[in-house]
Amino acid sequence: MSRLIRRIRKPFTRTEHCSQQEDVAAESSHMSTEALRSRPPLEVLYPDPDRSGDNKIEVDIVAVHGLGSNVDWSWTWQDKEGHRPSVHWLKDTNMLPSVVPHARIIAYNYESRWHANAPKTRLELCGEELINSLHNFRTDALERPIMFIAHSLGGLVVSHALLYADRTEQLRYIPLCTVGFAPLGTPFRGTRMQSLAKIVAQLMAPMGSHDGIITELEQDSKHLADDVHAFAQLRNKLDIPTTSFFELYDSDYGKKIGVAGWFQGRVVEEASAHVPGWGRAALPTDHFKLNKFSGPDDRSFQAVSGELRKMSIGSKSVIERRKQIIRNRHFMVPFGRNNNFIGRDVILEKLIKTIPPNAEKDGCQRTAVEGLGGVGKTQIALEAAYRVRDVCSVFWVPAFDLTSFENAYREIGQLLQLPDINNEKEDVKSLVKRGLSHQDAGSWLLIVDNADDPDLLFQDAKLADYLPFSLEGSILITTRNHQVAVRLGVPLRNIVTVQGMSDEDAAILLRQNLNENQTRDINSTRLLLEYLANLPLAIKQASAYMESNTNVTISDYFGFCKSSNTDMIDLLSRQFEDLHRYPGHAKEQNPIATTWLISFNHIVQHNPLAADTLKFVCFLAEKDIPEFLLPAASERSRKEAIGTLKAYAFITERDTSNSFDIHPLVRLVMRSWLQEKREWEEWTTAVVQRLREEYPYPTYENKETWVRCLPHGQAVLDINGATNTEGGLYLLSNIAASYSRLGKYSECESLLQQVLEIAERVLGTEHPNTLIALNNLAVNNSEQGKHEEAEKLHRKTLELREKVLGSEHRGTFQSKRNLASVLIDQGKYGEAEKIVRQTLEIQKKVLGREHSDTLDSETTLAVALGGQKKYEEAEKIHWRTLKLREKVLGGEHYDTLISRHDLAWVLANQGKHEEAEKIYQQTLEQHERVIGREHPHTLKYMHNLADALAKQGKYEEAEKIYQQTLEQQERVIGREHPHTLKHMHNLADALAKQGKHEEAEKTYRQTLEIRERVLGAEHSSTLVSRNNLAVLVSKQGRHEEAERLYRQTLEQNERAMGREHLYTLIYMSNLGDALKNQRKYEEAENVYRELAERWERAQGREHPQTRLALQHLAEVLREQGKS
User: Fold this and answer.
1) Which of 226, 160, 152, 157 is nearest to 185 (CA)?
2) How far is Cα of residue 986 from the mean position of the Cα atoms in its chain?
3) CA–CA dist 823, 816 (Å, integer)
4) Which pLDDT tens digit goes with each residue over 423-443?
5) Are 1005 and 1029 in contact (CB under 8 A)?
6) In terms of pTM, does the model score above 0.70?
7) Is the distance from CB of 186 to CB of 268 less than 8 angstroms?
8) What is d(CA 212, CA 217) in angstroms, rounded to the nearest whole number?
9) Are 568 and 671 a contacting pair, CB within 8 Å?
10) What is the spatial distance between Cα 546 and Cα 1014, in angstroms, rounded to a whole number?
11) What is the pLDDT of residues 15-55, one digit of tens each?
């Protein structure tokens, strides 16, 4: 690479000049960079400024050189052999000055170097400098015609310059004065040599090269294509005579970088040098000689100068034609430009490409801007009107009603000076339609604003029939109704749907006229804009309110919105001053609420079912409303109703089929309207009844349906009075059951309490449905670990069911089984076994052995037996129950999964860990599919799988699952839930088993601290955590600390569970070990002696634990010499 750098360095230090010293060649100029910068940007080459003459200047010709070139030699031909003098074809009197004799020829001097000491510039900046320099240079001849000659990159500089001028008010006259453009080998589509030049620029970085401009010349780049497209539109608009010249011969590009012959080819292909629709001419030379001519007879010179001569001769007629067009151009728009207009760049970019009359040569194109009322359609159309006013006449027609339409048409007719336009007997609409359809009207854009009413457009007045047609015309429609746009013949590609503003633009609009002290709270700004759905009219309304109440901040206003629906509706209904909206028109009032109700009234008239559908859905949640919840109707009628609401943008279709969303503010306005019209109770009843019909009792088999219904049922429950009926109570019960199925027991509990309260009040305390509510509340408490509360409720339910339903009713069986389950949860296995055995005997007689209720009871019995370590009997029952459930219910039924899981638990407790692991794994995969990955029961199954792995010594695998389960448990049921704490404790165990003592200790201490606070210091789980922490501490040699923890644990367990409880004896043994490890043999002797006596009383002298205690006693006696 260093050798290559040495080879290409030489040309950059050369000072001699030759005919190919141009463009990307990168030779240095006659003068230093400093001297170049000290020269003016524009220099007159002809006539000589120092010579007086009587030349009458009629046109300015501006020459712009290419990349890496220099103004002094860019336009100069030199004889390689040195036999002939050099030729500067722009200023030598026998060259261009003789062909265009009344021209002032000017050279633009700008820095285009890229190889060394290069400026950090880009095309746009070069173009802006060119135009600003021309503006300052031509102060005495502002209206003089201008022609541009440009070599290579210079052509792009010219195009950027004219685009910049067209966008700048004070410079717009320059494009209007431009009467010719002759680009010589300009890469309008980029060049394939760009990649090579970029590599060279990177290699020359130490010498100050810069590849900024080179980067912009990438072949077929989107950025370059967009720029050229914009310039082509400007050229077409002004009809600027243009001839593109392109090379016919290859260039030795490698010679320019010191590697002659390596890279040969055309630098700019014909397809890049020529834009379709422009003039073109081929020159018999290569790229580096396109701008250098040897003399008057040079064929290339004759071709270029001939085109420049034609442009010069026609310059006066071009400018006169433009002036005539401008004189005949009209701008009839009822509003001034909105200088506070913000954003919408993508939409405006599309409109500016679509709505100019010359965008469609063979038709009178129609474009529509559609969207919800208040979304900013009129303001977008207004900004578009101002952006195209220099292209064509612009006429603005409001279409609220027949009067506004006719008045606007009459004004158009008067501007066009149509015959009979003031004759009251003539039909103004027909006259203007004919007038605009005639070619004498010139090019025009007709903006039909607020074309919302189908009756007005297609039935009553049939205004659609009076829209003109002209090949020089274009129509832009704004409408709230998509169906109107379609019926008006707007192709889908030309329908622009407007949504809310971007977050950034919405924030700017909100803060625009407010004081700094009103806008400081950024979070409130975000929340308010989110609440207003970034709708411009709602934002403008909020801003206007705060502007007139300067003591109200954005935070205050958001508080008003959230305080009550009444306050929000009041704010949405307030009038405010806006100079860019129609003043005082009944159908175009400022408040956004009124705006939408006008649209709603259109719907009431044309599609009553659509109106009823909107009334219905305003009671539901805003998102993902399924069609099956809508009021009963034929498929066709329902589809038409939804189509109408979508057309007005009150609802929007979702990607998923057969569902949609309602705009949140539309929902609020509709609710207010129903209350105002006293239809609230009627529709509340209808919605509750419909949901009762469509919301199924939740099971895992119909989960897809009830999950979609859940948010809408919840939304209805939030309505005052919705649950006071039997239908409301049914709906409330189903929603509570849905939350239970999802494992959201806290949400379920509050609803179940409501169900029970309403049922007791409406149905009575002993009604079967009331008892179902009482049972469900008890079950839900049990799922949350509130076992004592659950037991009380189950006993109460059982007592009432036996009294009301009898001892052999299914409900009574269920209560007995549920009571047994909650006893199992509390470790009362014997009592639970007794209850379930009694229940089973009756159930088998009444319901049969294979009934699902009987199988539920058998499963409960097996769990109770397992808790008492009667594993073999429990395993037999679980196998039998599992086979029957697989046969009756199927392999993936929820109850089948429970049986399979409980069987695995029994196997694991018998030491059959591998078998248990396989069943746990299978059950877990199925459970995730059936009820979800984060359901509490799924997490329980994951935890038990981890336990099975840990018991096989697979601690690393177990740790990963414990960690994953713990994270999900904390998210789903909370960090302090008993199940979460169990997972945390077992994770600590797995860490300890792997020797990760620091992590394990931290986790043990976290678990212990939470268990002490939540469960109490003497709860069995708390004591286990403290004991295991002591074991870990002891392993690390901290025996004194371990002793303290063991003593505390032992004392509390003796108080809570008794002196001879299993765990009491385990903790006592651990204490003895801690004392022995500290050589406190006398104290250890006392502990081991007491331990042996307790084991002997509890299990007998030959029990392994008794013998182990005696063994430890013997060891400490020996240590004391008491053998």
Assistant:
1) 152
2) 40
3) 11
4) 888 899 999 999 999 888 888
5) yes
6) no
7) yes
8) 9
9) no
10) 49
11) 233 333 333 333 333 444 555 567 889 999 999 876 645 46
